[in-house]
Amino acid sequence: MQPPDTAPATPEELLARSYRIAGLSLGELAELAHVAIPENLQRHKGWSGMLIEKWLGATAGSKPQQDFPELGVELKTIPIDGNFTPLETTYVCYAPLISKPGTTWQTSNVRNKLQQVLWVPLEGDRAIPLAQRRVATAFFWQPDAREDAILQKDWEELTEMIVLGEVEKITARLGQALHIRPKAASGNVLTDAFDADGQKIKTRPRGFYLRTSFTGAVLHRHFT
DNA sequence: TGATGATCATAA
DNA sequence: TTATGATCATCA
Questions:
Q1: What is A11-223's CATH topology?
Q2: Which among A20, A63, A90, A174 has the fewest CB atoms less than 10 Å away?
Q3: Is residue A60 scored above 80 in pLDDT?
């Protein structure tokens, strides 16, 4: 068995690929793909995600789009404990601090990415050596009306603050399901934003993340 | 001990 | 520099 070298043609094929690797360990998948296994994730935080991308046929590289544009599917790995409870929040996308006029929830990058997600849970307990952590059964998810409404409300509140120049007042405590946190290589990375007076300022780049309480509910709905 | 704020690696 | 893949590590 080896990783595919083409993108899946249909959602069914993508799901079939995820089923092929369910139950296998990250060590086995890395070996089969001829990928080096780091001792831990401290300096390789995106390693698992990249490995799964490779096995499902996602195109490497960074684009502000879905992983499988032709399928309209976004791929997300998520570390879980023995009860299928998420151990980490889930990064969604960059938070634009210079918002484009006319952007609404319907046309936002957040909604575009979350419209159809293939969740791939991975054993994430730090007590388990990285190579021994197994891949769980993946599943497709689309926000239901209730989930979409919650996400929309959070997105609109946070986006409104950015538009009003209140970026510096945004804290990760805001947002029921979706929140904003720094997203950068370090604290001295700066990007442009505006303050309440419309003056251009420099601030740390931010990203949208899903709370574990929200993703946990999504997972439990599918593993009960 | 969980969540917030900070950080690491890589690509283009 | 922006954006992807995320998890780390400190502190309330």
A1: ECO RV Endonuclease; Chain A (3.40.600)
A2: A63
A3: no
